[in-house]
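Form 7-S
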Amino acid sequence: MKILIVAATWMEVKLLVDELEKVDERSHMLKVYQLNDNEIDILITGIGTTFTTFHLTSTLREQKYDMVFHIGIAGSLTHELKIGDVVNVVTDEFADLGVEKQDEFLTLFESGYLDINEFPFENGTLRATNLNGWIDLKKVRGITSNKSVGRESSISEIQCKFSAQIESMEGAAVLYVCNWVGVDCCQIRSISNYVEPRDSSKWDIPLALENLKVTVLKLLKDMSVAVV
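Output:
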């Protein structure tokens, strides 16, 4: 199989890359590796939806893949998840795309600019590929924002408005592009922190990255088994 791994930063894939055999370097952003019989390309897009959308779309126009794995760390909006947990984000949505009124924020769907079921959206959300239980991880809902929220007022607003469990800065962009292009895609995230007033001393990025590596490496090895 030919697999594309998409991550915002090199930090999020560095431990994984150490377990792979490097084959080629198409650019400073796109490198080719091998694991068993699978070719694994790794694309580093940069942080946020704009960079991610551009570089992923450009790559998918030039290369054909059987599967896109979007991986990275994320903040949890709920204490039901523990720091270090690795989750499968099955739905995602843009949390900062819309209209701000005097006392509320309206998404593009709520403001009437976009129908909630206009392709590729389903009830206002973007869905990852249904792999019929092949990925044995806790399934969660995500939101995507171009800012990592850290103020009490912002946190309260998104927790009241969205029913998501994790927050990232790229997830919905990857699902949007992959749905349009028609390539299977899943999003795997490891929890590095809780979404709360910013205090990085409570974060555990090393634990999140180690658990992410172990999980994604196992998934890649399992790709030798046909996904039904």
